[in-house]
Amino acid sequence: MAFVQFSQVSLAFGDRDILKNVTINLQSGSKFALTGANGAGKSTFIKVLAGLTKPDSGNRAVQKDCRIAYLPQSGLTHAGCTLREEADKAFAFGYELQRQIDDIGDQLAKGEGNTDALVMRQSELIQKLEDSEWHRREAAAESVLLGLGFTRSDFDRNTQEFSGGWQMRIALAKALMQNPDILLLDEPTNYLDIEARGWLETFLQNFRGGFLLVSHDRYFLDVTVNEVYELFNGDLKRYTGNFSHYEKVREVELKTLIAEYEQQQQEINKLEDFITRFGYKATKAAQAQEYQKRLDKMVRIEIPESLKKIHFSFPPAPHSGRLVLRLNNICKSYDGSHNVLNKLELTLENGDRLVVAGRNGAGKSTLLRIIADQDKNFTGEIIPGAGVQIGYFSQDNAETIKGKETILEYLEGRAPLELIPKLRDMLGAFLFRGDDVYKSLDVLSGGEKSRIALLQLLLSPVNLLILDEPTNHLDMHSKDVLLEALKDFGGTVVFVSHDRGFIEQLATRVLELKPGVFKAFPGDYAYYMDQIAKEEESHQSSVVSHQKVVEEISSVNSEPDGKLSWEEQKKRDAEKRKAEKEVEKLEKEIEELESKKAELEAKMGNPEVYSNGEKAKAVQSEIDSVCAQIDQATAGWEAASEKLMEF
Question: Which among 493, 434, 496, 485 has a CA at the least distance from the CA of 459?
Fold first, then answer.
């Protein structure tokens, strides 16, 4: 069985221990997650496991011929060939095996070397090549690329044409195509939409090798792993079960430690407050110095960031009416011929948490920009409710954050007075800890600026939040803090996210976008997924049923029966044509009725309808009537089909 393992491995950077006598065994069938606070050393751990970074001490062992594929968080680019050609590089291992097999074949043909040994070695290589599925590489490449969101038209594009996020998708695709014994994935979902994440979940569930991954997506971890390893202060501890189970066990395990931590924090705050207030008063100076000595000698208790209970609330949302926003007949086109948004209708009510769902390119971000009044180049009408004040967040907000101010100064100048004392905790929740808050805005990365932009928005007194991918650049703990704040928010939220767990916890309504098409779902995300599954099942059932009838009809011998007279045959042919027309007519009628039913169901999903008892009753009556007509037409179609099969 293929494996890579650590035995008593240690690694330090300066006086900081990253790994302390760590032991782990990753083998075929292992499904591991690696967790820990930002800065705990997770990426370094994976690099050591991959053999890219050498430990200070201990042993790293890898089984002979074990193939390892490693994906870093970012930084990989590709150029100089097409996507198809780049994907083929993932199969270099197979090409090398084939070369060795051919070389042995040449030696055998020339009568060189030990024949038995060469034949045995060639047989081993052939078996290894077959096990790697190299001969099915084209199908494997197509499956992986399509699963990760590429289209067939992308296959012949030059790789340098793809953006940074798509460059990392190429790298992920190549890692998966290698069909390695061991997969090491550092934040593989960072650049994936929800559909591609779903595909990757299925891939990993069926993966026969072993994998270890780092991710801040709780749902993704829950459905892919069965063991969690926590890296904390250089120590590695193992927990069986998925990520949610790990969190429950770990919280119970650390209950006493958390209580001690909170008690110590209270003591620290009291000592620091006394020193700050009285340190320069002569009558209190000696006592302040004594308190400072106590602080300096105190052994600080540390707990994982994910277990620190940080909570903040938005400023009170300004009052607005029940109707927050109405969109009428919204159309948006970028090329003048194809509408990304087509005749979109939407009504937002106070308190809604609406998630906009759909594949990349469906118009999600476009719609959010229109609602936020950032894009005015569209047709249709937007009617805001009384007192609506909008706050908008997108990754572009980061571009406006610049200057010599420190992070703390920048936010103190923009926060309501009552929130200023809480800024340090809030910054900590958004991954700015310790001296990070004194960084100048000009030295921040794009991700850091994005987090500042999000926090700045959350400090603003608004009642309609428009959030485009707010969880990007946040770790799991930060997402939890944001999620709880949004749940408690007194206004309305419209958001786009690729984090399924975040969506499931927050959304109360779903708007699904497809190019030029929209559909509203009045329930939460679980309701939406259930409806999508039912529609897909119904569609597949309809296709299978129709195909079965076609095959049965085709199987009937349509050749004239030699025993029939000419008159009888003529009459039979006429009856057959009549039956065919009846089947065709009823199929068209059923299709029209199904379309009418779908329109009525969409109408029922409109808040103006389902919140009005009389309107809802009238629409439901229409739906019931159409359903009865569908049943009647279906019965007629079945009878006509059976009659047609007699010919």
Answer: 485
